[in-house]
Sequence to fold (789 residues):
Amino acid sequence: MVTLQLVGSLRKELADSLSTCRVLVVGAGGIGCELLKNVVLTGFKNIEVIDLDIIDVSNLNRQFLFQKKHVGKSKAQVAKETVLQFCPTANITAYHDSIMNPDYNVEFFRNFMLVMNALDNRVARNHVNRMCLAADIPLIESGTAGYLGQVTVIKKGLTECYECQPKPTQKTFPGCTIRNTPSEPIHCIVWAKYLFNQLFGEEDADQEVSPDTADPELSWNPADTEARATASDQDGDIKRVSTKDWARSTGYDPVKLFNKLFKDDIQYLLTMDKLWKKRKAPLPLDWLEHQKLTCPQGVTGTGLKDQQVLGVAGYCQLFSRSVETLHFMLVDKGDGAEELIWMGNCDDPPAMDFVTAAANLRMYIFSMNMKSRFDIKSMAGNIIPAIATTNAVIAGLIVLEALKILSGDVKQCRTGKFDSRNGELFSKLM
Amino acid sequence: MIEKEDSIISEEEAAQYDRQIRLWGLDAQKRLRGSRVLLVGLRGLGAEVAKNLILAGVKGLTMLDHELVTEESSRAQFLIPVNNQGQNRAQASLERAQYLNPMVEVKADTDRVETKPDEFFLQFEAVCLTGCSRDLMVRVDQLCFEHNIKVFCGDVFGYHGYMFSDLGQEHNYVEEKPKVVKPKTEESNDGPEAKKTKIDSNETTMIKKTACFCSLKLALEVDWTNEKAKSSLKHTPHFSTTQSIVFSPFVPLFFPTVLLKFRTDKGRDPHPESFEADAMLLRQIRDDVLEAMGLSSDLLPHDFVSYCFSEMAPVCAVVGGVLGQEVVKALSQRDAPHKNFFFFDGMKGSGVVDYFGPK
Fold:
């Protein structure tokens, strides 16, 4: 009788093929850290990992290969170093780079027995999908958000690929909603982000913040709307001065900026009375009037400081302070460097302060309940809540699929879906 | 009782826990921060649970294990650095466990869990038992049940794993549901329809609920021989695929039953080095267990033995992730807990939550 030889939990043949093959892990973040740990403990010996990102303090609640002292360093590099501490015999190559760099061509991908994605964006996923199809290498795709996670195997000729199913597109809002008639906090937040770019960042013609005279609602006659649009293009100089140039001409005076954005422009909107027939009209703010009100001092209650909603007077102050700080930063950059860059989910206090203040002032003007910095950061920064356990489970499932592929059991591969709240782990055969 | 002394979250905690506070809320984070947990057993599954709880931000985690590091165990677990052979497993895991989150008080205890007096367990809000004998689990669970301490048990045997929860007679928690809001409708019969002001779609409401659990003793004492149990064997779970094997939901329970019996008989788990002898014993136990239940031994096929040796790292990750999240839910009193078992089959890649115990 042939004795079954086990190496740990695995049959010897499988254990042997693990130790000789090469695998690529794309991403060393939430899923990536868990995945690298699993891959190494399961017995893979030749691993390459790539990630363009550096470590941030908000990663530390789940990207367990990193510590506070590593903040600012390369994720791929630190992940490799930490893994080597518990498995020094693993042969790991780390790349602090983007997988979309042309150096990682089809030949590069062909070196691997399989590729495992641990990405957080669609562009990179599409790219890796195509490379793996071109190289004809199996790809294990995965994703997590909050309590939910998913794992899928993609193999040319056997399964559908990542791009086979249409994915929902990012939501965008019509210009007139942002510029004239916001009805939800997100409209005000988008407006505030546009404003940031217009004043301090890269100006974009699609990110106008001033009242839109070509709003289709202003007339029912399409010809009329077109006439207005042409008129505003051909109009006199004043309307064509860019927001940034205008701001510069005032020396980025916070009071002048405030009065233009939250008083004059709003008064202009009020003249477009057709817009306000069925809607509550906006209320212009006056800087001097709000100076008279006191704003809340310090932090009250047991919530996070960021979860406080400051009130109009508070946001007036915040607006003023953040404009000054951002102007200072812009000037500090010197000649030629004309732009600050919006980094939504990094800890960039002045930019986030600015967006929080501007968005809230606009919400107030349009009679919406104001939001805390904490909530605005979620929406402005496209922050996805994340925990360690969902990533741990998904990364476990990824390796189990990898083992099936290596055993030649591709037909047994499954799409796994996991909901951490109820522990339901669905898996469907491919 | 969860300590409520310190209800302010520091800047450091807010920054580090940001992404999870955005998911389960500040109240939940504070409760976690007031909880002390005991974790018994630092093999593969234990290390995963330790990591998950330390990252979640509990007040303290005591890691208890009397075993020494062997060559095999240093391969199986990511907290023990290499070259720590001969050291105590909990002790060897301590440094790297603490590095995961300096804000948690992590301790190592090298005693045998069997020798701990009752009072020892009472200092914790939750107790997690891995690698323990069935008798010990039943004893500790009974004690904790009487003192309103949450109990969790779990093990990984090769490709298979399970976890069990006992949150006491009455576990109170909240569930967050979106607020149902009717949009304002206005007649608009002249000109383009004006955009309607929507009420904030992010508003939610907290609903209070209660769940009741039974002890491990009662959960394992299901009388399979009676007709009612037998008839429910025909019920197949909804989670299987079109190609699934027609196993009943009770099959997952047989795995831990058989493996726990092995553990009691041999004082250890099946070891690859004694594969032949252990495999034979496993099959024997399977036959005995199933016969005592009046069931066919076909329910656990012949080759089941080759999939239950050692601890598979990815299976530890899955079971450890589920177990970790159950502990978090229980301590934070948020979201519905599993009642009362979770079984994972790493071969199939499927997980099932099921209830065993008195109705």
Observations:
- The mean pLDDT of chain A is 86.
- The longest strand of chain A covers residues 139-145.
- The two ends of chain A are 35 Å apart (CA to CA).
- The first helix of chain A runs from residue 12 to 20.
